[in-house]
Design brief:
single chain; alpha+beta; 5-stranded antiparallel β-sheet; 3-stranded antiparallel β-sheet; about 20% helix
Amino acid sequence: MKSFQKEISLRPHSRGFHLITQEILQNLPEIKEIDTGWMQVFIKHTSASLTINENADPTVRTDFESHMNKLVPENAPYYIHTYEGPDDMPAHIKASLMGASIQVPITNGRLNMGIWQGIYLCEHRNRGGSRRLVITILGE
């Protein structure tokens, strides 16, 4: 069994849903050494999240952002945690709903995802800054 773990820093992204599949793979030449295994990606933040979804039509990412903003609005009168700005508490809720990690199978040195799937960084803050990911690969 082989294992690799790497922490990478993503460049800052604007608020919204961003494909980061290639950015992750560029930092992981070790993936080519795995015939059968798993890659886990964990984000070390409480106001951004990760998910897997449509990688072709950018309107999907726009619709995700629009829907999440309707589902978890800013300036709700019942928020108490407001000292970091109106986007902060909603960002925490959105991050919890979307999740802090994803797991993808590896087959023959490549991510084994569907043709229309990509890994998203879900940036829930207006100015979230650089985000840190811990990527762990296990396999043979």
